[in-house]
């Protein structure tokens, strides 16, 4: 019988099958940037904690320099798999894989770096923010106020109006879509610039609820059929070069209920709220969009209809 946390993890897709972890290992964008950030932040002899270790690959990156890595994983199947895989790799013995709940675990000693990759677009579905905020409180109570470095250090989120085609061999199916960032598709037209709606800095206290009201000016004529949600994870800040090591999540496009014809100069008013770690449907149900037409100033309220979450 699953406990409440395990049941929620299964529902939100956090107990994902091993083949999905293989896809993450094959994601060069994710792997290269996490490796670079971990190499940057983990110094020789450091103590490292990873919350939500999966296959253990990020802990293994840290083990190249760290003296000790505590790798915490809640899924018992992945605990066994991580131990098996780490045993095949040099420095794998520096990683201790621990079957425990990241909401409850504290290392037996202070650590220098905390790695946590429980990240989904918009900080939905997975519990990244809640896990880190909970950890900081418990860690401070045990070891004092000096916090370890967090990887990622921050998350930046934006929303953008799209003309998204939902024609599949004549079958009209407006559904949630996930696409690779930076990959051009003839099915997608950007109607305006992305608007920043949230910045989460893990060095600071963070609210678990996100709420935003804002406007975007339309730059291209077209039909508004979806809103794209963009999530950039700042894995490490390079102070000497005023740059960052980033990981950009897949884009998520949410369809609107009724397409809206738009012209350059029109303004789209958008509002939504959701709890970090919540379902995609919770964002959809709260999402409201209204059009201020530049020619007529007519206002048409549109609320996105629920769709099946990916």
TrEMBL record:
InterPro entries to which the protein is assigned, alphabetical: Arg_MeTrfase, Methyltransf_25, SAM-dependent_MTases_sf
SUPFAM superfamilies tied to this protein: S-adenosyl-L-methionine-dependent methyltransferases (SSF53335)
Keyword Transferase attributed: yes
Pfam families linked to this entry: Methyltransf_25
Signal peptide (UniProt feature, chain positions): none
Ranges where the Methyltransferase domain occurs: 48-135
One function term, GO molecular function aspect: histone methyltransferase activity
Record keywords, A-Z: Methyltransferase, Transferase
Gene3D superfamilies: Vaccinia Virus protein VP39
One of the GO biological process terms: methylation
PANTHER family with a match to the protein in the record: PROTEIN ARGININE N-METHYLTRANSFERASE, PROTEIN ARGININE N-METHYLTRANSFERASE 3
Protein name, UniProt field: Methyltransferase domain-containing protein
Lineage, highest ranks first: Bacteria, Pseudomonadati, Pseudomonadota, Betaproteobacteria, Burkholderiales
């Amino acid at each position: 019988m699953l406990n409440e946390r395990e049941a929620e993890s299964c529902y939100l897709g956090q107990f994902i099958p091993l083949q999905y972890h293989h896809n993450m290992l094959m994601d060069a964008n994710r792997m290269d940037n996490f490796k670079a950030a971990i190499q940057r932040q983990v110094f020789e002899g450091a103590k490292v904690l990873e919350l939500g270790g999966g296959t253990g690959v990020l802990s293994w990156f840290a083990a190249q320099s760290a003296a000790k890595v505590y790798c915490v994983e809640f899924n018992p199947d992945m605990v066994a798999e991580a131990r098996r895989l780490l045993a095949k790799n040099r420095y794998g013995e520096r990683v201790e894989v621990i079957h425990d709940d990241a909401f409850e675990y504290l290392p037996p000693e202070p650590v220098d770096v905390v790695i946590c990759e429980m990240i989904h677009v918009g900080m939905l579905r997975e519990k990244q923010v809640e896990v880190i905020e909970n950890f900081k409180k418990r860690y401070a109570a045990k070891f004092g106020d000096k916090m370890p470095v967090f990887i990622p250090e921050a998350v930046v989120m934006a929303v953008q109006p799209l003309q998204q085609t939902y024609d599949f061999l004549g079958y009209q199916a407006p559904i949630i879509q996930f696409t690779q960032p930076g990959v051009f598709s003839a099915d997608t037209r950007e109607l305006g610039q992305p608007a920043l709606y949230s910045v989460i800095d893990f060095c600071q206290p963070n609210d678990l609820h996100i709420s935003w009201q804002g406007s975007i000016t339309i730059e291209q004529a077209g039909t508004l059929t979806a809103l794209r949600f963009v999530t950039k994870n700042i894995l490490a800040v390079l102070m000497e070069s005023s740059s960052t090591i980033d990981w950009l999540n897949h884009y998520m496009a949410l369809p609107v209920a009724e397409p809206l014809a738009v012209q350059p100069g029109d303004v789209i008013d958008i509002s939504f709220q959701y709890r970090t770690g919540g379902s995609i449907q919770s964002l959809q149900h709260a999402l409201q969009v209204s059009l201020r037409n530049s020619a007529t100033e007519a206002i048409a309220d549109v609320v996105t209809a629920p769709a099946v979450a990916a």
